[in-house]
Give the backbone structure.
Amino acid sequence: MEYISTRGKSAAVSAAAAIVQGIAEDGGLFVPASIPTYFPQNLADLDYCRLAKDIFALYLTDFTADEIAQVVDEAYSTTSFPDGAVGTVSLDNTEILELWHGPTSAFKDMALQVLPRLLVKSLAKTGGNKEIIILVATSGDTGTAALEGFRDVPHTQITVFYPKEGVSAIQELQMNTTAGNNTCVIGVQGNFDDCQNGVKMIFGDKDLAVKMAAQGKYFSSANSINWGRLLPQIVYYFYGYGQLVAKQRIAFGEEIDIAVPTGNFGDILAGWYAMKMGLPVHQFICASNCNNVLTDALEKGVYDRRRPFHKTISPSMDILISSNFERFIFDISGNDSEYTAAVFEQLRDEGVFTISDSLREKFAAKMRGGYADEDSCKAAIKRVFERYDYLLDPHSAVAYQVAEQLRDDDASVLLLVSTASPYKFPAAVLDALGKLPQDKGELELPAYLNQLSGMPIPPNLAILGELPIRHQQVCAKDDMEAAVIAHLGLD
Ligand SMILES: *Cc1c(COP(=O)(O)O)cnc(C)c1O
C-alpha cells in the first residue's frame, strides 16, 4: 500500500515513510492510495487485538505480521487497558462505544498507545539509528495521552508544554505525575496559543536541527494528522459493529447510524474509512459544540473559520480548523488533489471556502452535521442519568444530543462514540446534574460523583492523588526553546 498526498505534489511513499514524515512535503496529508475492502463473516467473533492486526495488515503492507502483532499486543495490553480495549453499554436503541478504558481515560489513548510503537518500527525501516524527540503543545487531553503513549518507548523522548493556568487540575496532575525516564512536562506562563507558537518556533529552528542531527536526534510531533494515529481508530468501528451483532441487536449486514463528537475530524473520518472498507452505515452524525464550523460546512456547504472562538465544557472539541477535513474533501472529490489543494489554500489565506452543491450531494445523505449548545449538552447529561443511571461526559453528551435532534426515525440502531470518562470532567458533569458542591476542590469531585452515581472511577484517575509529583518545571513563554536545549543537553 502506497500513501499519496492530498495536494498531489509529493511522491507516493510507504506507510513507514508516511508515519515518520507525518505531513507530506507539499503541505498535504498522507492518505492510502486505495481503500482496501474488509467485512468478514465472523466479525462478531473477533477480539479487539485480532481485528486490529487484520486491519493494520491491510494498510501497513511494509510491516511483517510479527511486527504488527508486537505493536498491537503491547499497545492494548492489560497493563494499559485493564478492562479490555473498548466497552459497550446498551441504552434502548443506542449502543455506547466506550473508548476511554485506556491509561488516561480519553479516546486518544486508542491511537496514542499505537503511534509511538509504529513510529519506532517505521524509523528502523526508513534507515537509521535515530532518536526521536517528540514535542507537544497541549490544552489537555493530547498531552496526557501522548505522555502515556511515549513513556519508556525506546529511541524516543517526549516533552509536553501546557498553559500553566489553562488546563484542569486533573489534567495537570495526570501530566505531572507521569512516570518514565524519557518524559518531560513543562508548564508555560502563557496560553495554549503561546505553547503552540513556541513549539512551532522550535521545529522551525534550522541551527538547532543541525546541532541535533549531529547527535542523531530529530524532532517529530504526535498530532492527529499522522496516518499512524488515524489507522488505529478505524478498528473500533468494526469492533462496535461486531458487538452489536454478538448482542443480537442487529443482523449481520444491517446498516447502523454512528454519532461522533468531533473536533479535528479524525475520529469520524476513521469511521468514514471503515464504511468505505465495507462497514454497513446508514448515516454518520458529525456532532459539534458551539464551535460549529463543521455543521455549517456539512449542512450549508460553507466552511468559515472567521467566527468567534468559544470556550466550552467540551474543550477537546473547541476547534475551528479541523485538519482532517482535508482528507474528507479529497475523498469525496474523487481524489481530486488540485481541487483539494485549492480549497485548503483558500482556507489558509482567506479563512473560508465553499463546497459546491454537486459535491455536497455526494455525501449529504451519509454525513450529517449538527451541534449542541452548552445548555442542551448539560440537559442531555441530566436526562440520560435520570433515565438510565448512566453518566455521559460532556463530549459524548454533545453527540447524544445531536443524534437525538437529527435522527427522525429511530429505525436503525445508533452507535454512539463515547470519547471520555465522565470522571475526567467531574465539575461539568456535576453542574449538569445540578449537584456541583461549592465547598469542594476539583480533585475531590471524582469521589463525590462516584458516591452520587455508583459508576466506578477509572483506576488511573482513582489513584491520581496518591502518585508522586515528578514534573514541576515552569517556564516563561519566550524560554521554551532554551528549556528544550537544556533538557537535551545541547547547550
Ligand atoms: C480529541 C477529542 C475529541 C475530538 O476528536 P477529533 O478526532 O479531534 O474529532 C472528542 N472528545 C474528546 C474527549 C477528545 O479528547
